[in-house]
From TrEMBL:
Keywords: Signal. This is Outer membrane protein beta-barrel domain-containing protein. It comes from Mucilaginibacter gynuensis. InterPro entries: Beta-barrel_OMP_2. It comes from the Bacteria.
Length: 199
């Protein structure tokens, strides 16, 4: 009898672990976090890292052991640029759209995720409002004027909460100082997400 119960428990546990990874599912939620900006220039300027923020929404669609995670959030990127004794502060605000592909390990509401993918960043400034940035993101308007990055990261899921740590490597340069200078932005991001519902 004990062997039968043990065999049944192993069979059910294995079946659950397999189905948790293979059965298609989807979830939607909110996320917020902080970033630490790292700026690379090809000039004699040096740059200090400063904290920024992000806040928005995410979706995760999974099945067959993989998941696709598109996100949409507003992010603020800050820096201090030093040129000898002079010190200037610059701020970038953008609407970011990462499109991440990854895999997950674990079950029973707990697990780890690994992912990578591209990110497109739509600038929001005095000439472009959040609504205009959102419109550009949906229609992919003027994509040549936007900034692109590559994202790699890992996350931990604990029931309805997720904690993510990622690195965003800037691929294009962003203009600052009235368009007279440009820099490539890279970020370390730590965020917390809350699942609102799942299907």
């Amino acid at each position: 009898m004990k062997k039968l119960l043990l065999s049944l428990s192993i069979l059910l546990g294995t079946s659950y672990l397999a189905s948790a990874q293979l059965i298609p599912n989807a979830q939607f939620g909110l996320k917020a976090g902080v970033n630490l900006s790292s700026f690379s220039t090809n000039s004699t300027f040096s740059s200090d890292k400063r904290a920024g923020y992000l806040g928005g929404v995410y979706a995760r669609i999974g099945g067959l052991g993989f998941n696709f995670q598109p996100e949409l959030y507003v992010t603020g990127k800050n820096l201090t640029i030093k040129d000898g004794t002079n010190e200037n502060k610059a701020k970038f605000t953008s609407l970011d759209v990462p499109l991440l592909l990854g895999t997950k390990v674990g079950a029973f509401g707990f697990g780890g995720r690994f992912y990578a993918g591209p990110l497109v960043s739509f600038n929001i400034n005095e000439d472009q409002s959040l609504g205009q940035g959102l419109s550009d993101a949906v229609t992919f308007k003027d994509y040549k004027k936007q900034n692109f990055a590559a994202v790699v990261g890992a996350g931990v899921d604990i029931r309805d909460f997720s904690v993510d740590l990622r690195y965003e490597a800037g691929l294009t340069k962003q203009k600052y100082n009235d368009g007279n200078s440009s820099i490539r932005v890279s970020l370390f991001t730590l965020s917390v997400a809350y699942k609102l519902f799942s299907l």
